[in-house]
Amino acid sequence: MSTIEIRKVTKKFGEFQAVKDADLSVKAGEVVCLLGPSGCGKTTTLRMIAGLESATSGDVLIAGQRMNELSPEKRDIAMVFQFYALYPALTVGENIAMPLHYEGVSPAEKKARVGMVADILHLTGVLDRLPGHISEGEKQRVAVARAIVRDPNCFLFDEPLSRLDVELRHSMRGQIKGVLSNLSKATVIVTHDQLEALTMADRIAIMRDGVIEQVGTPHEVFAKPANVFVASFIGTPQMNLVEADLRSVKDGKAELTFDGAPLAITVNPAVSALKPSKVTIGIRPRAFAPVSKAGKSTITAMAELIEPMGAETLIHARTKSGNDIRVVVPREKRVKMGEVMHLEPDAAQTHVFADGGKAVRA
Ligand code: ATP
Question: Are residues 183 and 56 part of one domain?
Fold first, then answer.
């Protein structure tokens, strides 16, 4: 069974801990993206799974077998790197067939397998060309074809699309996801691009400073971020993280005041111990409803910068109490610079973070 699991994996470079106690399991057929800012330990984690880097402690399991002491070749993994190198003097077909060379596959079988993956990746028409005579997108697909031709145990991708231009990246995301979803293999993809993770992953593992902060489906990490870091990292434009006054917590309802407006947010009844205090709340820019008049549950904010985004407009505004917020409204709203807006924050889409930035969930 194609599975990947890491248990309490740590990597130290001298005194520096690049990965700390990482736990992750990837099921057969599942695509998990490791997502996080530069230097957070994504590539090191991937390299430990591949065997290109040894774990300082913890276990790396592939197909249920502990792999820590096995060399990369013995792990039966196919890896696609950001800087894949194709052999320039070999045709596309010969490049794809290369991994089979070392496996003693018969010429007929080789031809059949290359034909099959070329078909999956829409490369049949360019099999006889040299890499110098195909497009960047086709080269990327050759790199993927070369990885899947061997039918390995699982796949590892390190920033596979970062070399491509925006448009090509967009179409390749869908194509790679389509190919992977038919292969029943455990796959880990490293990326720093949240859009890539949100569109390609079945689950996303979000890392910061060597720690996996949250693992969840794209919807979970967006709708239920575990902490302030995940909340701020996922979602464009970024979630507003502002200070609010927590008045009370009773029967699973937190009563807060944000910029003069009362907010009643459903929270886990177990957190009734929270004392009245200043807390951080998170409100997505699309969770403010603009209304025509000030009311009991509205906040007031002045538009300071307007950024048209096509069908929507992003407004940078300053509230009465001096909070800088981002608000997204439909283009038809036609807000002007300097305009005073009345906004109703949606309590159902507001997150409370307490206790060092941890989400207080319903
Ligand atoms: P990026 O997206 O920039 O590639 P990353 O999240 O993949 O970042 P890693 O490459 O895993 O991050 O690096 C994690 C940390 O470990 C970084 O601070 C990096 O400088 C450090 N590091 C990585 N490899 C080594 C090494 N061989 N020796 C010392 N430090 C290293």
Answer: yes
